[in-house]
Structure prediction request, 458 residues.
Amino acid sequence: MRSVLSTLHRTPQVLREFLPRQSPDKPAAAMPDLSAEPRPGFSELGLVPALAQAAAALGWSTPTAIQAAVLPSALQGGDVLGLASTGSGKTAAFLLPLLQRLLVEPQWPPAPPRILRALILAPTRELAAQIGASARSLAPQLNTVVAVGGVALQAQRQALQGGAQLVVATPGRLLDLAEQKVLRLSTVRMLVLDEADRLLDLGFSEEINTLLSLLPAQRQTLMFSATLPDAVATLAGSVLRDARRFETTIAHAPAMPRIRQRVIEVDAARRTMLLRHLIAAEGWDRVLVFVATQYATEHVAEKLRRAGLAAAAFHGQLSQSRRAQALADFHDRRLAVLVATDLAARGIDVAQLAAVVNYDLPRSAVDYTHRIGRTGRAGEPGLAVSFLCADAPGSAAQLRLIEKRLRQSVPREQAPGFEPAAPPAAPAPQDGNGGIKGRRKSKKDKLREAAAGVLRSD
Ligand code: AMP
Prediction:
């Protein structure tokens, strides 16, 4: 068994050496020249016609860069570390090879047809549900079960007892099911860790370690992460074997040309009024607003509702049914504004979103990219507006750092009637309640706030 704990001493530097050292013919920077056109088609990359057709039916006719890079190795059964974020097409980069192996290698390993052979771990319930839906569209003949927390266990238990070949899960619920012996992990031959950085950020490392100890060592592992902080590198060093590493960094893909970015200077206290003004003046019919804390989602949504807007909060403390309801309402345009934490920054795919607003600035360039990537989906034009508060200590520097990382600079604007009142003020008063009467800040909120002050180096 390859235990995470046994390799905790590995540093990221070791990993960078470790990957190529284990397989000298497989350099760490193994990204082929993807600028070369035309890029090979799915069939040329080794995908069977049935899956290539299923991909085309979803509108995926030409592989994205990360798909073109990952598919050949993954189809041959090799381990892969993919450094790619949402929007790069990473889901298909692991789903297509995984499904192909399930479909064309039914005897691998020799086993009854409806035995669990592949497992995908995702950080959020919504992401797991989206991956499960894509798997079902691509390969409806396979039995795919999505197992996530926040919903009754019974339905998942029944689905699993019918025999699933592929399970897409969040770590906590999967562990519950494994501990209750509803499913056995010893037959799994393919493992995907999607958004590994997010899995660890959300505190799932213990669950992942336990799950890894239940999985057979003999398996193929595909791991994807937007960033490679120490903890992710350590995890990669322990779960991957002879892995090839592929990377689509922001530097490789600054291409979000369809997303128009704006920065508007405003006093912190007038942000909600400015937001309401923009929604009306710009005619935004649907807008996703990012704030720094769970309490701020509730607070801002409440203020917008009081102003007559159909707004709701979206964060990790909501029950799964309320999260699903909020998303469905937003999708179906029953909601005009969704006020969210970074939980919504990844994986949420809403077509024709008029704008994304950074009511609070994100902590890092990576988070910024994820957030604004919610607009301008599938070739549509997009708009991302960030509020810059001169009276919030550190925000100007924080935004400059994000711009530096992204090698861009967005002109500062002021909205008539909302010009900031004079120079930066003293640090914001701390009321111990996150600025919202009667509500206590969660541990995660405190961590987020702490992180918001110091920009992460990723
Ligand atoms: P992901 O990075 O997996 O979240 O995918 C981002 C978006 O790209 C999703 O809406 C996918 O449906 C879409 N997508 C994935 N692969 C392709 C492809 N080869 N061509 C066009 N769109 C794609």
Summary: The longest strand covers residues 259-265. The chain has 16 helices and 14 strands.
